[in-house]
Amino acid sequence: MYSSTFIFRAGQYDEEFHRLDRKIAEIARAMPGYLGEESWENATAGLIQNVYYWESEEALLQLIRHPTHLEAKSKQAHWLDGYRVVIAKVIRQYGDGGLVTRKENRPA
């Protein structure tokens, strides 16, 4: 399993941002190999994190290379005050079973 974490500081959003954000989420959720997602906010630091989980690196790369994702990436400076992406190979996960990564856990 792989995770891709998009960490960013929000700037000024507009309708184009929201349209692309919704579209990328729809594309990701429809891709074979998509396992789920989680979103977090650190209000003190002003940071937002969107974590996507993928069955394989190839599945993750499908989203990274998708034209809509590339379009949003090329325009990010219009909407964000900085970002970082962390791609990780998940070695293991465990818990008591009470928390499950949901396939649609991202606010609309």
What would the keywords be for this entry?
Dimeric_a/b-barrel; 33% strand; alpha+beta; monooxygenase activity; Antibiotic biosynthesis monooxygenase; 108 residues; oxidoreductase; monooxygenase
Domain count: the total is 1
- Beta-strand residue fraction: 25-35%
> What does the largest sheet look like?
4 strands, antiparallel
Give the integer mean of the pLDDT values.
88
Low-confidence segments, ≥5 residues, pLDDT <50? none
Number-wise, the strands total 4
What is the tally of helical segments? 3
Strand line-up of the largest beta sheet: 2-3-1-4
Terminal CA distance reads 25 Å
In terms of quaternary structure, what is this?
single chain
CATH architecture: 2-Layer Sandwich
CATH class: Alpha Beta
Give the C-alpha Rg. 14 Å
CATH topology: Alpha-Beta Plaits
Q: What is the global morphology?
A: globular
SS-based structural class? alpha+beta
Helix proportion range: 25-40%
In N-to-C order, the SSE pattern is: EHEEHHE
GO molecular function, one term: monooxygenase activity
Keywords: Monooxygenase, Oxidoreductase
Organism: Paraburkholderia aromaticivorans
Protein name: Antibiotic biosynthesis monooxygenase
